[in-house]
Amino acid sequence: MKNLILVLSLAFLPVAGHAAKAKKEVLTAASFKVNTAASTAKWEGRKLGGSHHGELLIKDGSLNVEKDALTGGSVEIDMASLKDLDLTDAETNAKLVNHLKSDDFFSVEKHPTSTLKITKVEKKGDKTFVTGDLTIKGITHPVTFPAEVKIEKNGVKAKGEMSVDRTLYDIKFRSAKFFENLGDKVIKDLFTVSVDLSATK
Question: What are the counts of helices (DSSP H) followed by strands (DSSP E) for the chain?
Fold first, then answer.
């Protein structure tokens, strides 16, 4: 009888291995490397009566997770990879891209990379907001934007769209803030950069 009671008691004890495994499901602290081949960055700029859009390559990056929540990270963008995707004429396309890479805009030869360093991630209701230091042309300013974040055991997916005031980064070409009588040649000060990141261990 005593042996039967002992067997039944052991049967209802938690198995140590299962308990440990359950704890590991929660990512207490981890850093995931951005898979540059599986991640994208896209840009769009507007002018009176039209717009241009294109893409950029992500050079490097990482996303940090703690207690199943995004807490930080950084993304480095290769500015020399800048492409325009809306102009079909090769000569016109090349002219625009070269102009965007010049000192009138992003000064790519002097500043080949731009970076976003995440400094804060906040949940407001069912939405996530990311704040970070955005560096373009060696000039840094904070940005905040909504993001979608999905955290899994072996990876993180995050995407969001930033609205950037180019004049803060010494990009003043045809800006109505600095030049008068531009007429229909005005280029809007705000441009957008959207990133779709996939990071793994």
Answer: 3, 9
Average pLDDT, integer, range 163-174? 97
What's the number of CA atoms in the CB half-sphere (13 Å) around residue 32?
A: 27
Q: What mean pLDDT is reported for the chain?
A: 89
The CATH number linked to 142 is 2.40.128.110
For residue 101, give the 3-state DSSP assignment: helix
- For residue 161 the two structure tokens come to 């769209």
> Does pTM surpass 0.85?
no
Instruction: Give the pLDDT confidence score for residue 174 in this predicted structure.
Output: 93
CA–CA distances in Å: residue 109 to residues 80, 100, 156, 161: 8, 11, 32, 26
Tokens representing 171?
A: 């990009």
φ, ψ dihedrals at 200, nearest 5°? -135, 170
Domain containing 93 equals: 26-200
Domain count, the chain: 1
Torsion of CA 189, 97, 192, 32, to 10 degrees: -140
